[in-house]
Amino acid sequence: MSSSRRPPFLLLAPFFGAFLLFWAVPLAKGFWLSLQTNTLFGDPGFAGLDNYRDLIGDPRFLHALRNTVVYCAMVLVAVLPFSLLIAHGLRAVYPRLRGPLQFCLLLPGLTPPLVLSLLYLFVFNGPHGLINGVFFHPLGLRGFDWIGDPRLIKFSLVLLMLWRWTGFMTLIFLSGLEGVPRAYYDSIRVEGASAWQRLRHVTLPVLRPVTAFAAAFLLLDTFVLFEGAYVLLGGSGGTLDAGLLLVSYTYLTAFSLGNFGTAAAMSFTSLPLLILALVAILSSAGSTARRVRGAP
Amino acid sequence: MSRHSFITRHAAPLAASLALLLLAVCFAFPFLWMLFAGFKIDAEIFTPFPILPRVFDTANYGSLLGGEWIPYPRLFLNSLFIASAETVLGTAFACAAGYLFAKFEFRGKRVLFAAAVLTVLIPRQVMILPLFSWMHTLGLLDTPWAVILPGASSGIGLLWFTAVFKRLPDGLLDMARIEGAGEYRVFWTALPLIKPALIAFALIQFTLAWQEHLIPLVMLFSKQNLTVSIGLASLHAGSQRVPLGLIMAGCTLTLIPTALFFALAYRHFRTALGRLTEA
Q1: pLDDT per position as a tens digit, B183-224
Q2: Which of A46, A125, B12, B239 is deepest in the core (most CB within 10 A)?
Q3: Chain A residue with minimum CA distance to B169
Q4: How many CA atoms lie within 13 A of B277 on its CB side?
């Protein structure tokens, strides 16, 4: 049994060396920074929890926080079911088409987000965009201001994420679907189950661990999505701050206003929220995986 | 009768194929436009149709690669170096640590694992400020290492490789032990057995590293030290009148490394994902 031998501990050294130096130390420093008054150079004073107290009274921060939560939820709800649907579709198409289709769907995921945002602007940018130019203007309609209109900006950001991640998520679901034993479907089909029942009682439970991985990955990326909002909105929150996300507000506070202490406090306030969401997602995967194995 | 079965046999694949073709065209059209925009003069660019340029004008590529606006070839190499180094270090570090977590029991293992995964899963944005001042202290600001080193310990990588090695039967490792190999040697002989997983993770890591924006934006500032994304962003945001065709030419070239890597590694990627998700 391998566990009785002396573990080769040196294998841990590189990972945890880099981890300590470039994650743990900055994290500790960041927490210390969040307790200081706002000066980058020179001597900052100790501010205690003042920065945190200021945040709670800052309506713009609360607004950004709410925007971020809504936006993350919207992305998860849009991308995951859509990708599952596409994965199902890819299993049904003519085999010869499968490769080219996958390549087209994956293309946005292989592109630097900056490039993606520029292309997105080309399609959706208000009066000059492709959508308005091709679909609305010929009909004499004015079209929509997809990015400037505060009611549409969140929708636009979600669509950008959908474009970016559908291909990759589809690939993950496809692998998950291939892992479902045929016998599961056969046995439930004998019982006369509908397509919906097959999805609900076989596909979804079996896919739960894969979905959890996909959701965690997506949540992290959405939470830190900076380029999208940054390029589309020029670093601001857009009209009426409707597209102001925590990541852009933190960046603005730190690098435009120079309020490093406040920005650090901002980062740490959102941290428990994110960890809670991740733990919930990952642990739900574990429990359902067990439940499925106990099922017929 | 035969006609009926022809329809039932083809209805589903045909419907799925048509629907997905439409979607694929929507997904890929902007890329097609970008590809051709690099060869157009600006007056032609904003009318999406006809999508083909009247004459293929290579002036944009000429002044892009000639470094007229930004030192593009230099920036491209910077990005390649940063992404490659992050890929090699990130994959190697996570692989070694994941092996230990999957195959051995030791005191403090759970705490260490949870700390590594939870902390490393923390988004970059939370770390960026203190990281900036820490890199300033270390004297690494404005060097590629300020971007590479934080990317060298990947929490997702640790999760990935722990799962991969858990599925590797102990018997294979014991065979090496019976032949008298030391524990480090055993680890080394296990690597070829997980080759698809290694390549698959390298692919993920490279794609993410190639796409990174926030860390390079903050850490690098000299004009010739930037990454390609940051350089293009500065062209887009700058006040000079840079031809849009030139920016699009620059954007088109950024797709080559990831697309190439993906095409080469796709088979291994599917194998590795398939093995991980087997019920």
Answers
A1: 899 999 999 999 999 999 999 899 989 988 888 988 999 999
A2: A125
A3: A2
A4: 28
Residue A36 phi, psi (nearest 5):
-105, 160
Q: Give yes or no for B48 touching A (CB within 8 A).
A: yes
Whether the pLDDT of residue B260 is over 90: the answer is yes
Q: How many domains does chain A have?
A: 1
Q: What CATH number corresponds to the domain at position A254?
A: 1.10.3720.10
Reduce the DSSP state of residue B67 to 3 states and report it. coil
- Chain A residues whose beta carbon lies within 8 Å of the beta carbon of residue B187: 8, 11
The verdict on B264 touching A (C-beta cutoff 8 Å) is no
Q: Which amino acid is at B256?
A: I
Q: Which CATH architecture has domain B70-277?
A: Orthogonal Bundle (1.10)
Task: With respect to residue A283, please indicate whether it lies within any of the assigned structural domains.
Answer: yes
Comparing CA positions, the residue from B28, B61, B27, B34 lying closest to residue B48 is B34
Q: Determine, for residues A18 and B28 on separate chains, whether the beta-carbon distance falls below 8 Å.
A: no
What's the DSSP call for residue A256?
A: I
For residue B27, give Cα distances in angstroms to A112, A186, B31.
Answer: 15, 35, 8
> A280: which 2 tokens?
């919930």
Q: How far apart are CA A136 and CA A95, in angstroms?
A: 37
Q: What's the rounded mean pLDDT across residues B119-136?
A: 77
- In this prediction, residue A294 carries a pLDDT of 41
* Domain span at A97: 49-294
Interface pTM, i.e. ipTM: 0.85
On the CB side of B14, CA atoms within 13 Å amount to 6
Of A239, A109, A145, the C-alpha closest to B28 is A109
> Does residue A44 form part of some domain?
no
In a domain, A90, yes or no: yes
What's the length of chain A? 296
Q: Could you tell me if residue A20 is inside a domain? A: no
